[in-house]
Write a structure and sequence with these properties.
By secondary structure, the chain is an alpha/beta fold. The chain is built from twelve helices and 15 strands. It holds the Pfam family KYNU_C.
Length: about 400
């Protein structure tokens, strides 16, 4: 079918999520399609940061741990995140980076499956996941190892040596969505635990960890949860696994009585032992603002709009830029795709730079992928139409061939 801008204007008028856009600070004239890398800033995050700076840190200083409940923040935010990912209160804390939480989660899972020593991972996953677990098995020694498989091979690669299957639900490059429930069931049936990485699913689609009987999970808050650059990540440990083993980064914040300053480590109850050291309060306070915005939205509406945005984007790019040799890398079926779309093109890098220059902000992932993320809380249907207009123009005029678009930046 051939669309026009009026068609997308009408979709915006009918969109129940449209009012959320006004809660975000967006640049006029810019179409931000990189919320899967760094979510946009909720307007209120700035006020919250100033409040912590001037009052809580500036005036109340050390008292704020109690009077402003700084001490509670990792739990309070964790409980809010829990409500977004199908977990219960007391199963999630917001702390540390995703990679560090993954280390703690996989180490914990390995201790829960003591007779086995293999961690099965997806080689093409976001590399830090592989690096962290390679570091973990090197530390453990004694026959522990990482094995890699790609998605169509998971089932056959799970044998009686595999202790932990560690997977990212939505692939960071392709946007492919895995069936959490089916894979968890399969792996558990073969005696393994599963650690899920929700970096590209939390806030992007409905996740139901407990319905899937998930074991452990981690994820970040600076992508679809709009927590801010490098904001604290989260870790989930199913209630049935809590209080059984100790995670290795046993710091004083995870101690059962941190202010007794005892010589020896005693793990705290429940999820609390997943904390390690003093928490970054500035980051947590700002993160909570993004989580609160997300908690006010309906996740089914988010998913429906995300599927529509990505579907229209694929259709329009293929219709209007199809002759320029782009290959769709993301799944075409709505139900197999997260909230992003990737196309490959041999000249992907300069084309993406030209797009960013024209106010269509996506990103490039080596070697040849143009990646576009769709955040239903602040992306409109007209964004899709306007982005593809500019995309088409760049290809038709060959503006991407300007030498300045081939200069590489440190962060792509
Ligand atoms: C974004 C992302 C990360 C980020 O990890 P950090 O520790 O925050 O740097 C990790 N894994 C996956 C799959 C991601 O998409």
């Amino acid at each position: 079918m051939t669309y026009n801008r009026e068609y997308f204007e009408q979709l915006d008028q009918q969109d129940p999520l449209a009012p959320f856009r006004d809660q975000f600070a967006l640049n006029a004239g810019e179409i931000y399609l990189d919320g899967n890398s760094l979510g946009a800033r909720p307007k209120k995050a700035a006020q919250r940061a100033v409040q912590v700076m001037e009052q809580e840190w500036g005036k109340d200083l050390i008292r704020s741990w109690n009077t402003h409940n700084w001490f509670e923040l990792p739990y309070r935010i964790g409980d809010k995140i829990a409500s977004l990912i199908g977990a219960d209160k007391g199963e999630v804390v917001c702390t540390d980076a995703t990679g560090i939480n993954l280390y703690k989660a996989v180490a914990t899972a390995l201790k829960l499956a003591p007779k086995r020593k293999v961690v099965l991972m997806e080689g093409s996953n976001f590399p830090t996941n592989n690096y962290m677990i390679q570091g973990l098995v090197a530390q453990l020694g004694d026959g522990y190892e990482v094995r890699f498989a790609e998605d169509h091979e998971f089932a056959e690669k799970i044998d009686e040596d595999v202790a932990v299957v560690c997977l990212t639900q939505v692939h960071y490059k392709t946007g492919r969505l895995l069936d959490m429930q089916a894979i968890t069931e399969q792996a558990q049936h073969k005696g393994c635990l599963v650690v899920w990485d929700l970096c590209h699913s939390a806030g992007a689609l409905p996740v139901d960890l407990n319905a899937a009987n998930a074991d452990l999970a981690v994820g970040c808050t600076y992508k679809y949860l709009n927590g801010g650059p490098g904001s604290q990540a989260f870790i989930f440990v199913a209630r049935r696994h809590q209080n059984k083993v100790n995670q290795p980064l046993s710091g004083w914040w995870g101690h059962s009585a941190p202010f007794n300053f005892e010589r020896d480590y005693q793990p705290g109850e429940g999820i609390s032992q997943m904390l390690t050291g003093t928490q970054g309060i500035l980051g947590l306070a700002v993160t909570e603002v993004g989580i609160d915005v997300m908690c006010a939205a309906d996740m089914q509406q988010i998913r429906a709009k995300s599927q529509a945005l990505t579907r229209y984007f694929i259709e329009l790019v293929e219709e209007r830029c199809g002759q320029f040799d782009f290959t769709l890398v993301s799944p075409r079926e709505d139900e197999l795709r997260g909230s992003q779309v990737a196309f490959s093109h041999a000249q992907g890098y300069p084309i993406m730079q030209a797009l960013i220059d024209a106010g269509v902000v996506g990103d490039f992932r080596a070697p040849d992928i143009l990646r576009f993320g769709f955040a239903p809380l602040y992306n409109s249907y007209c964004d899709i139409w306007d982005a593809v207009e500019r995309f088409h123009d760049i290809m038709l005029t060959e503006r991407w061939k300007q030498p300045r678009f081939n200069q590489r930046h440190a962060v792509t």
